[in-house]
Write a structure and sequence with these properties.
This protein is an alpha/beta fold. It contains six helices and ten strands. The longest helix is centred in the first third of the chain and has 14 residues.
Length: 258
Amino acid sequence: MENIENKPQSKVECNRSCVVFATHRWDNGILNYLSYLKNEIGGMMDFLILYDLSANPIRKEDFPEYHFYFFDSTKLQGFFHQNDKLLPNIIVALIECAKQHHYGHYLLMENDIVLHGSFNKFVRTINAEKTVDYIHIATDVEGGPQKHWPIRYIRENPFENLYFSWGHVLYISYGLLMEVRQFMEGNDTINYEFLLPTMAYNGNYVVRQFENFGYRFQVSWGPAELYESKYMDERMPDTFYHPVKDLDIVDWGAGDMP
């Protein structure tokens, strides 16, 4: 996909990792979140904003403190899984981004997942995992892959075992990402929240879970009001919450406090 909003030359940083923040929103809540993340990352990883400009175009020149990869979800083939508007496939956008921004690993996160804990510590912990191909959320309140409704789209599944992992935050190697790209070129019926863990566990990849590092997850499809209430009233240290749409409730800078 040719994108005139992005620089044509590739950036190759094979030995570095990059935090990729995916968003289609651009408001004060997002700007506060980005400022917090940039300070917490502090140069340990690069920081890139994967921005869907279809609804709210912005100019990178107006925000020189950030690096962007722009895409238009209405024009990016396969972004909405099987044309279902409820299933944006952010991995499709990350694959396009990786053509220009080549890193050894990508720490991909959505704009409505928040950590109550030190994001600086989280990045330091994950950045040390140079030999892994995939780190994912293991917690699943739904109770397994068969409980997730996008399974109905799957056709001609070649894998012996099917897995599911929430894609709100994940760490993936460039090598696995390119294998995912190749698979989707032949079979695009497996939603990425099934495809990534299924390829990783059925293949010859090094896989870990964020829970292995002491992190907990209160995540699901929603509703946002439930998980915002959990964040405000029940929050625990080193715990991620999703979805949190109202970012004004987040205590930026106090997240490492119990």
